[in-house]
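Re: tryptophan structure - here you go.
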Amino acid sequence: MENNKLQRDSFGSKFGIIAAAAGSAIGLGNIWKFPYITGVYGGSAFIIVYLLCIAGIGLPIMLSEFLIGRRAQANAVGAFKKQAPGTPWFLTGTLGLAAAVIILSFYGVVAGWTLDYVFRAITNQFANMAPAQLGDMFGGFITSPVRPIVWQVVFMLLTLGVVLGGVKDGIEKYSKILMPFLLGIIVILNIRALTLPGASEGISFLFKPDFSKLSAAAVLSALGHAFFSLSLGMGTMITYGSYISKKENLGKTALQVTIADTVIALLAGLAIFPAVFAFGIEPSAGPGLVFITLPNVFNQMPGGYIFSILFFVLLAVAALTSSVSILEVVVAYFAEEKGVSRKAAAIWSTVAITILGAFESLTNGTVNFKLPFLKSGEILSLGFFDWMIELSDMMLPLGGLFIALFVGYKMLRKDVEDEVTNSGAFKVGYVSAFLFAVKVIAPILIAIVFFNNLFGFLK
Ligand code: TRP
């Protein structure tokens, strides 16, 4: 069935759709990045802005992607070619494809770190380490030449294995197992964190807004992260939308996935900050928050050995169901647009993306590679790796802008209505509000963020 274009593979059940799409959305973005940027930008005021971005921009764009994909029954590039033949709209998909390659390249590296930390947790390596030693361990590890790449390769092979299984028997099947598992782990971690003496300070850090800490940078970062966390702007949800049955209610699905992603991000915060405060540690540790701060927290916590293993397994699982969704964008493109077999497409894209990622990993320490016309990265201040992360921060809102404009101005209102009501099978009351969001709100806000990022990006 590999090359069979007559019958496209698709998701088999409602739960399977939610598991796969929420599996894509819930990832390192929720458990690694959301807590640390929340810490850096001062907590709850940032969260409120983030929630506004999710509701006002993220949700409408997710619905846009689903409906573009399902209507066309095609991959991210093909979807635009089918619905706007002979126009440059397909470049939105091409941009997404490039973003997929870039994101997966560094995502595989960070996911590899999480596998290494699963191994370190199991072999009890954090015990008896002082905070400074934990920092040195992390710094030494990510800047070393071989070890991070070995784990990156392992992780990319896992990703490849799932995608080779196909949409229903690979992506959907594993998501249905892994997502409930993930939820179970995060609930256990929450119970542990919230029952620590002194946990309440962490809770008020998350939920008592202090707007004086809110900067323009925080607002921009909230919008950028809304895209990343919901897997938007790159055609992931177009591709997944194309696997959703014509019987499903797309608006409802988008809402459920958005809520699941947001709840897990908040639960990750609730697992981390109460523990961080309970042990009197600084919340604003940045990218090292989960790799340095948390092992330190686990060291001091009763049962820390078990909870450290659970936490890093959680990170790795979350990363895997996301990375498969990124690889699938590339694979679906090559299989449908270029007539390559799914198997060859999956293997060769994995090889190419892994090589790019391995090079990025080397630029964290071994190789000094900086692009002359760009500011050096601010995330890890490390060069090319960092730069890739920032580049994706720009590409996603740009992709999201074109997706919003496509649904708002290129598609006919009648066709949009047709898709969100399953050709009139039921009524929905939100079409005008939705179109207002994609025609006006999203484009304006995204444009502001995009230009701001661009000027911050060039020297
Ligand atoms: N959303 C995932 C996370 O939070 C990452 C991800 C998967 C992604 N697919 C994507 C990000 C597509 C942007 C676009 O970790």
